[in-house]
């Protein structure tokens, strides 16, 4: 009987000892990492940004928007065909360009206007982010919509018939869905519709559908390899137009992003590169082009 | 047996309440840094730094999420995260150290106390010793902690490309301003 009581007491004391040891252990641990006491390690929901270095993949709108209060001055150049040879200095004797201004309105909305030398065309667009890719409890992709219009300001060639102002207009609408799969790789898809009020022949669809794909591979902190391509679903098969493909590098130097690329698309807005690209990669009808993007903070933050 | 439980429970409670007086914390500490270069000054501000101070031992720890730094220009913020601190690879900066003269501070008496802090700062995957002086102001059960120190970006393997060497300084001044509250339970 006495033995039993002793045993019980021993059990109790060993239990106490364990508790004390555990407490002291916990205390040592707590001192080692005070930050754990305030739950600093809880993962928080976090938006995935910087899927591309600029708001365009190359010719196409990208998953990125311009940040609020920022103006992005974009100067785009496309030279002549490289297979023009040394006589044309591999196309550098000829250039078309587009100058444009993009503005970040809110975190998810940007607008832009531009003017291209090709067809003396004005264009304007908006891009709005509906879903923002996020880690730790967010969706693994971003979804944006973009739409815009363009106005051809060339003089009408046929003055014998009645010309309407609306004939100058064309529109596009686009959904951009994609994901920054890793720090190094981003991919996006762009189902697109282009509407032209006036088309050349009855073979030309007023509404052209296309699906684009674009992506980037980050080669270093400041350089990435980009490409974008559109497959046109219902083009006019007889007018010699082809699907546009561009491949190039984004190079970031402090305040500028330079996009150096090769492309078969002459146009620098959605309507032109989707409906009027006639150069073919397979024949070497490619052009060198470069875009310069310069950001200006025009509205103070905070 | 029941009595024992009561004793243990009481012990835990008293330990917990002791803790409450010992430790102070914040999750909204302000940490800012300034880089002064010939062409531009860059300053980043953080409003949600975590800081915990154990007044019993003088242990002091800070943590900040690098992505939380805000800049005057959006592009600065992008470059900070993408090109300099690489916040996707190294999301956090942490300081772990001690108030060297902890015994000189009476945390239960209002007043301003000069402090000397020593420890290690881990950032961009590199850990370096840092040492600085600052102030702790004790006022009605709360602490206000402030300090300033300078680091070299090269110590933390943060490279500045030649083209922007007049825009970004290798010497960066860090300012800390935290108001700490008692940590309960």
Kindly describe this structure:
The complex is a heterodimer of chains A (302) and B (185). Chain A is mainly β. Chain A has two domains: 1-42; 47-297, monomeric porin ompg (Porin, Beta Barrel), CATH 2.40.160.40. Chain A contains three helices and 14 strands. In chain A, the strands form two sheets. In chain A, strands 2-3-4-5-7-8-9-10-11-12-13-14 form a twelve-stranded antiparallel beta barrel. Chain A has a two-stranded antiparallel sheet with strand order 1-6. Chain A starts with a helix and ends in a 5-residue tail after the last strand. Chain B contains two helices and nine strands. The longest helix of chain B has 21 residues, at 2-22. By secondary structure, chain B is of the alpha+beta class. Helix content of chain B is 17%, strand content 51%. Residues 16-20 of chain B have low confidence and may be disordered.
How many helices of chain B does DSSP assign?
2
What would you call the structural class of chain B?
Answer: alpha+beta
Tally of separate domains of chain A: 2
**Portion in strands of chain B:** over 45%
CATH homologous superfamily grouping of the largest domain in chain A: monomeric porin ompg
Reconstruct the topology from this structure.
The complex is a heterodimer of chains A (302) and B (185).
Chain A: H1 2-32, H2 34-37, E1 46-47, E2 70-81, E3 95-104, E4 109-116, E5 121-131, E6 134-135, E7 142-152, E8 169-180, E9 185-196, E10 207-218, E11 223-232, E12 245-253, E13 256-263, H3 270-275, E14 287-297
Antiparallel strand pairs in A: 1-6, 2-3, 2-14, 3-4, 4-5, 5-7, 7-8, 8-9, 9-10, 10-11, 11-12, 12-13, 13-14
Chain B: H1 2-22, E1 23-36, E2 41-54, E3 59-65, E4 70-71, H2 74-84, E5 92-99, E6 111-123, E7 126-139, E8 142-152, E9 171-182
Antiparallel strand pairs in B: 1-2, 1-9, 2-3, 2-4, 3-5, 5-6, 6-7, 7-8, 8-9
């Amino acid at each position: 009987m006495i033995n039993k009581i002793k045993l019980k007491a021993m059990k109790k004391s060993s239990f106490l000892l364990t508790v004390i040891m555990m407490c002291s252990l916990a205390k040592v641990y707590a001192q080692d990492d005070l930050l754990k006491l305030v739950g600093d390690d809880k993962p928080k929901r976090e938006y995935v940004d910087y899927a591309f270095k600029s708001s365009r993949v190359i010719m196409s709108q990208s998953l990125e928007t311009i940040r609020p209060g920022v103006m992005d001055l974009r100067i785009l150049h496309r030279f002549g065909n490289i297979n023009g040879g040394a006589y044309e200095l591999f196309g550098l004797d000829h250039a078309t360009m587009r100058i444009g201004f993009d503005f970040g309105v809110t975190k998810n909305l940007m607008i832009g206007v531009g003017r291209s030398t090709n067809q003396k065309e004005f264009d304007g667009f908006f891009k709005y982010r509906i879903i923002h890719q996020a880690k730790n409890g967010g969706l693994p992709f971003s979804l944006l919509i973009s739409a815009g219009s363009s106005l051809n300001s060339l003089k009408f060639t046929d003055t014998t018939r009645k010309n309407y102002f609306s004939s100058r207009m064309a529109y596009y609408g686009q959904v951009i869905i994609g994901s920054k799969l890793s720090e190094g790789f981003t991919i996006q898809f762009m189902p697109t519709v282009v509407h032209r009020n006036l088309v050349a022949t009855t073979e030309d669809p007023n509404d052209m559908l296309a699906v684009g794909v674009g992506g980037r591979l980050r080669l270093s902190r400041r350089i990435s390899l980009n490409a974008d391509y559109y497959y046109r679903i219902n083009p006019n098969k007889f007018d010699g137009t082809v699907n546009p493909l561009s491949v190039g590098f984004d190079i970031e130097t402090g305040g500028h992003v330079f996009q150096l690329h090769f492309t078969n698309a002459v146009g620098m807005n959605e309507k032109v590169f989707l409906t009027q690209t006639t150069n073919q990669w397979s024949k070497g009808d490619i052009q060198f082009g470069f875009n310069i993007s310069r950001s200006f903070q025009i509205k103070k933050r905070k | 047996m029941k009595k024992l439980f009561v004793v243990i429970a009481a012990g835990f409670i008293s330990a917990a309440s002791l803790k409450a007086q010992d430790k102070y914390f914040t999750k909204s500490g302000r940490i800012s840094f300034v880089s002064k270069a010939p062409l531009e000054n860059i300053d980043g501000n953080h409003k949600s730094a975590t800081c915990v101070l154990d007044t019993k031992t003088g242990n002091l720890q800070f943590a900040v999420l690098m992505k939380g730094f805000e800049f005057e220009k959006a592009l600065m913020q992008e470059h900070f995260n993408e090109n300099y601190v690489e916040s996707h690879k190294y999301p956090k900066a942490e300081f772990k150290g001690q108030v060297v003269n902890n015994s000189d501070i009476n945390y239960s008496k209002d007043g301003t106390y000069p402090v000397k802090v020593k420890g290690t700062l881990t950032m961009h995957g590199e850990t370096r010793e840092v040492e600085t002086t600052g102030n702790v102001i004790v006022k009605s059960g709360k602490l206000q902690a402030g300090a300033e120190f300078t680091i070299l970006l090269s110590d933390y393997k943060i490279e500045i490309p030649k083209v922007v060497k007049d825009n970004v300084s290798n010497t960066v001044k860090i300012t800390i301003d935290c108001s700490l509250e008692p940590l309960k339970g």
